[in-house]
Amino acid sequence: MYLGVDYYPDYWPEHLIDEDMEGIVGLGANMVRIGEFAWHRMEPRDGEFDFSFFDSVIAKLKNKGLSIMFGTPTATFPAWLAKKHPAILSEDEAGNPRAFGGRRQYCFNSAEYRRYSARITEKLVEHYRNEPAIVSWQVDNEFGHEGSDMCYCGQCHAAFQRFLKDKYGSIDKLNDTYGTIFWGQTYNDFDEIPVPKKTITTHNPSLQLDWARFRSRSVNGFAEEMTGIVRRCKGDHQTVMTNVSGGFFGKWFDHAEHTKPFDFVSYDNYPVWGGLAEPIPPYAIAMSHDFNRGLKGRNYWIVEELMGAQGHDVIGYLPRPNQARMWSFQAFAHGCTDMLYFCWRAMTRGAEQFCLGIVDHDNVRGRKYDEVRSVFSEIAPYAELLQTEIQSDIAVLYDYDNIWSWRFQRQSEAFDFTAELLRLYAPFYRLNCRIDVIPADRDFSRYKVLLLPAFQMIDDGLAERLKTFAANGGTVVFSFRAGLKDKNNNLRLGAALPGPVADLCGVRIEASEALPKDKMVPVVAAAAGNAAAESLLPERSACAVWRDLLIPVTAETLYRFDDPFFPEAAVTRNRYGEGEAYYIGGGLAEETLDAIARTIVNRNGICHIESEPGVEVYVREDGEARYWFVLNHTAEEKSFRGLTLKPYDSMIVPADEEGPAGRR
Ligand code: GLA
Ligand code: ZN
User: Fold this and answer.
1) At the topology level of CATH, where does 3-148+218-387 sit?
2) How far apart are the first and last CA of the chain?
3) Collapsing DSSP states into helix, strand and coil, what is residue 532?
4) Other C-beta atoms lying within 10 Å of the C-beta of residue 602
């Protein structure tokens, strides 16, 4: 188990480095990450390589018994490279090259950039391939983050046209697939096809989706190339990974494909960043961990865990005492096995003066230092437990094509994909169920419940797999707009919605309405009297964002719209084979989804744990031994099964559960 910090020795005077290393060791750390932005320090001029500084740093780190993760520095190229080859700079939608001065301003399709990046990566990894203290390589840093996944330059345009020619073969096939007859957009050749930059009205949906797929290929192709170089040059004792940033559903690259070449996934966990007045909700943090665990279907690292308030030009919320510790324990609960905190000490100069770390600029080891030391000392005995596999009965399915389709055409002003995914995820989180978040193309036959938020793009293959899953006893939960589109981002002629899942859902969609922000439409429980009481479902509720007006064919109605014009069903449940399918035809209110989630876990015998709002309980097992990770996400004192939880308390306790939730 590695526990440590992100450290930037190249930022500090030599005399401070020894003192820093003493302090890092004093945390109980055994690893530091270095180097991921130090290209100029290692290649000060074109073709002149100098690793002497890092040679001396590594000698000091080894002397302290610290292992090293070394970052390849392709996220921050030197100024001399931008000056010599300005074509490496990515371009914004207005055609302006991004200025040197930030980071990640490179174009993934620049041949020059790939050549120079390959060379520095090769020189660096070969130089340290036999260094026993370097146990892992981080490739680049947070690929595609901060808007760097998008470039509109001429290199990308030409590469996009080649990408389309490779995909479709003939321009007739592309025209037919896209429906370019519409608005007279028929292409005579691939070199007429534009990058879908700003235009009057909007672009062809199929073109837009292919552009997103091309962006993904660009980012992931660069990552694959650099990772291949590291693999070829590194020592057998060294692993290779990269660090995934937050906002992963808002990125233009498929993360499961992105992380395929790496030995393991690592996540950068920032529950609060920049000008946020409050952290993101606990269920959103939890989902981010489950997403990262789902990328390779196994536990993961965190190489940037927040301890100090972070921000570039604007900063905000200051984590309360023990709150960052609690977030660390939440990460360990959800599958993190090794953790590095960002960072040892914020730089006094440069763009991240306000990205505070463990030690502030006064260089005094204070509360945060003690907080990290307490995490390391308390988690270390559970190293084996943290390696155990997390088995979930519930999985949220996602698909980047579907996400990008919504991103180009969000249909409702109130739509946000991540919010709709969390709308279905959070009710099961509040029941302290373990939840996987996985790509839809994974084998999902072993789960009991599948959640499909805003899954408008469903092809026949996925529809058949979902039907088989339900027929075999599984429960499928769709939210609105299910099955609307095919994988070309087009609608189907002559097919009643929800398209290929219509018989699974047992409904026909009569019509739909996009709801504006802040608008809710009332729904009322279909069951009355005792039936309603039995069902635990609130008598009245409401939908935001969207409404699909459902006509039950074989499904039972749980809720209908309370609307004189549109009294159609709003929420239905359909028996399908041994299983069932729910259709939730709008952004249903939280308390109602909580009641539906409770119904589902009870009908499927899924282990869940009751806890006070704000108290998260996560079960981990190691053979017969079972533990609760108990986390108080609130500023109030809480209790759980006789445990008193101070504000932002976090603890691991043996689970002595015999209650109604039953054993797993
Ligand atoms: C990201 C980056 C780091 C640093 C931090 C600041 O996670 O990976 O280099 O910029 O944010 O919070
Ligand atoms: Zn480009």
Assistant:
1) TIM Barrel (3.20.20)
2) 27
3) helix
4) 13
What CATH number does domain 615-654 carry, 1.20.120, 2.60.40, 2.40.420, 1.20.950? 2.60.40
Backbone φ/ψ region at 288: left (φ over 0), alpha (ψ -120 to 50), beta: alpha
For 41-100, how does the pLDDT look when each residue is reduced to its tens digit (9 = 90+)?
A: 999 999 999 999 999 999 999 999 999 999 999 999 999 999 999 999 999 999 999 999
Ligand nearest to the CA of residue 347, numbered in listed order = 1
342 lines ligand 1 (CB under 6 A): yes
130 CB neighbour count, 10 Å cutoff: 12
203 Cα to the center of ligand 2, angstroms: 20
Counting atoms of ligand 1 from 1, which one is nearest the CA of 306?
A: 12
Q: Which token pair is 565?
A: 């014009």
Q: Which helix (H) or strand (E) holds 436?
A: strand 435-439
Token reading at 190: 């691939």
304 Cβ inside 6 Å of ligand 1: yes
> Nearest Cα to 308, choosing from 334, 347, 350, 351?
347
Closest Cα partner for 62 from 94, 31, 17?
Answer: 31
Cβ 341 under 6 angstroms from ligand 1: no
Res. 659 pLDDT band, cuts 50 70 90: very low
Q: Which residues pair with 513 in a beta bridge?
A: 547
Nearest-CA neighbor of 186 among 200, 201, 172? Answer: 172
Indicate which atom in ligand 1 lies nearest the CA of residue 304: 7
Q: Measured between alpha carbons, how far is 397 from 324 in angstroms, rounded to an integer?
A: 29
Those residues whose C-beta lies under 8 Å from the C-beta of residue 30, and which sit 6 or more positions away, are 2, 3, 4, 65, 66, 67
CA dist 580 and 575 (Å) reads 4
Question: What is the per-residue pLDDT across 95-145, written as a single tens digit (0 to 9) for each?
Answer: 999 999 999 999 999 999 999 999 999 999 999 999 999 999 999 999 999
CA torsion 538-541-544-549 (nearest 10°) is 100
CATH class for domain 394-604?
Answer: alpha beta
Q: 256-279 burial, b if ≥16 CB within 10 A, otherwise e?
A: bbbbebbebbbbbbbbbbbebeeb
Which helix (H) or strand (E) segment is 304 a member of?
Answer: strand 300-306
Residue 553 Cα distances to 450, 470, 502, 632, angstroms: 22, 17, 9, 45
Of residues 66, 145, 54, the one with CA closest to residue 104? 145
Pairing of strands 475-478, 239-244: unpaired
d(CA 196, CA 152): 9
Q: Where along the chain do its domains lie?
A: 3-148+218-387, 394-604, 615-654
